[in-house]
Amino acid sequence: MLPKRFDQAQPFITLGIIVLAWLIVPTAAKRLMRLSFFEFQAPLDSAAATTRDVQDFWSMRTRSRNELIEAGIDLAHLNAKYETSIQRSAALEGEVSRLEELLKLPSYTEYRAEPARVARRDFNVWWQRMVIRKGRNYDIPEGAPVIFVGGVVGRVRVVHEYTSEVELISNPGLRLAATIDGDTRPLSFQGGNNPTFGPAKGTVEFVPLDVTATPSAPRRLVTSGVGGVFPAGLTIGQIIRVDPSTDGLFKSGEVKLDPRLDSISEVTVLVPLLTD
Amino acid sequence: MTRTTFIIFACCVVLWVCVSQLNHYLAPLHLSVFAGGMLVSFSALRLGFREGWWASFLIGLLIDSSAAVPFGFHALFFAAAHVAVYHFRGRFPREETSFNVVVALLVNLVLFIVITVSLIHRSPAPAEMIPRLLIDLLASEMFVLVCSPWSFALQERSLELCGISLRRAQRGLL
Predict the structure, then answer these.
(1) Distance from CA of A190 to the nearest CA of B (A)
(2) Three-state SS across chain B?
(3) Strand partners, A244
(4) Which residues in chain A are closer than 8 Å to B135, comparing Cβ atoms?
């Protein structure tokens, strides 16, 4: 029979042995387990998201015909505006291709836009992520940029069979190269702390000393295209404050992100098109 | 792992789905709720060591699968919390709901602090996190206070529905 003191400590010894065993489990086995557990709970997220869609559908059914007619007229106006934009965009693309050929420049990466619904938002104090309802079944690649009407949402971190996990730009761990709109000098953007009941924030570093920004005169921060993940010119947020950094060589500042990022329900994944 | 483990695991999955849906709706407010203590407490206080430990470990792995942390992060913390609660449970009236709620609140508080300390290096300005951390912690504790009696009842009734009576087992009738 084991001594009483050892008997009391047995759960702790068992825990210690299991922790050690867990540390030496091969990474491949852990990855397989992670994927299995995720795929086990993925239908629950999808089911909840589908239920929300059905609720929205039935709440829309309660709208009167007049409201629908007005919405239809608004949409017709928007469509007319977009038609003009599409024609202008096609003309500009043709011009860009002609110049690329003429100047022998490398062409920009082309993307396929893949719209996806948000299944779950997970914006806690430690990380900021969302699950979207498209994955390998729509050829979503890992690292693909994700955008919405207000600019950059984030990038695809993990791709599963029917869902993908997106790391948001408000995530404290996310860094990306940026520039100020109308400027070509590269800056470094990092997701920041997200205060309760306030808009999401980020920080910007390596801002040139001649740049100024205030809440009343903010500067638009856009993707630089450096690194090849995000196309250039997508809105990240507004720089609302810059202060000289401690080294005196650059400034660092605060970026206010689009408030719609927090309640987003539909995003677009930019899937890079493979070229020869 | 026994049938009890899987029943408790299934109940914890239901609770975790409820919490994650609540967090989905709270996201626009930048508020989130953590209920790890609620998931661990029942199995640590009421079940046998192995079956309860496995239930805590499995639900930890499930949370890890969709979290931005190394796989096993929550699972090991949940397992450690389970061992600590199990070690001390004999000295307290562990069948009483009020005591179970207090344990759930304490475990939730400890897990929240431990996870925060482990992940604080990710923040570019840790000091600025403090107000949000306090509000999230308060919301989490309120949630656990309100929902843990229901969650304990759900787990106990689920076991009874499957023919496992904890009260009879603890009195040596089974």
Answers:
(1) 8
(2) CCHHHHHHHHHHHHHHHHHHHHHHHHHHHCCCCCCHHHHHHHHHHHCCHHHHHHHHHHHHHHHHHCCCCCCCHHHHHHHHHHHHHHHHHHHCCCCCHHHHHHHHHHHHHHHHHHHHHHHHHHCCCHHHHHHHHHHHHHHHHHHHHHHHHHHHHHHHHHHHHCCCCHHHHHCCCC
(3) A251
(4) 196
Between chains, do A30 and B28 touch, taking CB under 8 Å as contact? no
Cβ neighbours of B24 in A, within 8 Å: 48, 120-122
Judged by CB atoms closer than 8 Å, whether chains meet at A193 and B132 is answered as yes
Query: CA-nearest residue of chain B to A27?
Result: B71
CB A173 within 8 A of CB A127: yes
Which residues of chain A have a CB within 8 Å of the CB of B116?
125-126
Q: What is the pTM of this model?
A: 0.86
| Partner residue opposite B72 with nearest CB, options A30, A190, A191 | A30
Which of A15, A123, A195 is closest, CB to CB, to B27? Answer: A123
Instruction: Report the DSSP beta bridge partners of residue B18.
Output: none
User: Which of B61, B87, B124 lies closest to A190 in CB terms?
Assistant: B124
Q: How many CB pairs under 8 A join A and B?
A: 135
**Residue ranges covered by each domain of chain B:** 3-170
Q: Which of A23, A157, A155 is nearest to B71 (CA)?
A: A23
Nearest to A194 among B30, B64, B83 (CB): B30
The C-alpha of B64 sits at a distance from chain A's nearest C-alpha, in angstroms, of 7
Per-residue pLDDT tens digits of chain A, which is 276 residues long:
555 566 667 778 888 888 888 888 888 888 899 989 998 888 888 899 999 999 988 988 888 889 889 999 999 999 999 999 999 999 998 998 898 888 887 776 778 889 999 999 988 888 899 999 999 999 999 989 999 988 899 999 999 989 999 999 988 888 888 999 888 888 999 988 888 888 888 899 898 888 888 889 899 999 988 877 888 889 999 999 999 888 888 888 899 999 898 889 899 999 988 755
- Rounded to whole angstroms, the Cα distance separating A68 from A154 reads 33
DSSP string, A59-80: HHHTS-HHHHHHHHHHHHHHHH
Write out the DSSP string of A198-210. S--EEEEEEE-TT
Question: Which of the residues B66, B83, B140 would you substitute to probe the A interface, choosing the one with the greatest number of A C-beta atoms within 10 Å?
Answer: B66
User: Exposed, middle or buried, A82 (CB in 10 Å: 0-12/13-18/19+)?
Assistant: exposed
